[in-house]
């Protein structure tokens, strides 16, 4: 009986562990770390709806990204505008992965990394932005462009 209760508690915890936009984005970030198909893709989450933008090198890689995101059962939907086009794996990959790891706590912010320069877009509170910018600066990017909107 105790074992059954422990199993039920673990299942309930796993089902509720990914219920906020931040948790959903963090889950995507973890999955993106090990899947190269995410290299040219940016993602944001608002009200449990995931928005995917960017480029995948093939239809197959786009399907991998979509299937990976859709496997998160608590999401309400996916808006995607992923184009098929060239994605060059450069020395920016480790920086992009590090930036995405930091951004996992900020569900509506995404970034591109080109030649070591980080460009931020999306929306965040002023408080979150005051935490985010120093965290990204610690990664020592070649530059940091902030186009994040702070809602009133």
Walkthrough of the structure:
Helix content is 42%, strand content 28%. The protein has five helices and six strands; from the N terminus they run ααββαβαββαβ. The relative contact order is 0.14. With 152 residues, the chain is α/β, with parallel strands linked by helices. Residues 1-19 form the signal peptide. Keywords: Signal.
The CATH architecture name reads 3-Layer(aba) Sandwich
Gyration radius, rounded: 17 Å
Strand order in space, largest sheet: 1-2-3
From the 3D structure, determine the CATH topology: hypothetical protein tt1634
Q: Write down the overall geometry.
A: globular
Mean pLDDT: 88
Helix content: 40-55%
Q: Low-confidence stretches at least 5 residues in length (pLDDT < 50)?
A: 2-16
Number of strands: 6
Helix count, DSSP H or I runs of 4 or more residues: 5
* End-to-end distance: 52 Å
Task: Give me the secondary-structure category.
Answer: alpha/beta
CATH class bucket? Alpha Beta
Largest β-sheet summary: 3 strands, mixed
Number of domains: 1
């Amino acid at each position: 009986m105790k074992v059954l209760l422990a199993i039920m508690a673990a299942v309930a915890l796993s089902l509720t562990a990914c219920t906020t936009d931040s948790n959903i984005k963090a889950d995507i970030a973890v999955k993106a770390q090990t899947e190269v198909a995410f290299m040219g893709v940016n993602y944001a989450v608002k009200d449990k709806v995931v928005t995917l933008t960017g480029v995948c090198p093939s239809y197959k890689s786009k399907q991998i990204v979509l299937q990976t995101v859709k496997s998160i059962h608590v999401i309400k939907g996916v808006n995607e505008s992923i184009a098929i086009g060239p994605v060059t794996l450069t020395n920016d990959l480790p920086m992009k992965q590090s930036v995405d790891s930091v951004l996992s706590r900020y569900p509506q912010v995404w970034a591109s990394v080109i030649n070591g320069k980080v460009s931020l877009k999306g929306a965040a509170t002023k408080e979150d932005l005051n935490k985010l910018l120093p965290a990204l600066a610690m990664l020592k990017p070649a530059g940091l462009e902030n186009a994040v909107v702070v809602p009133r």
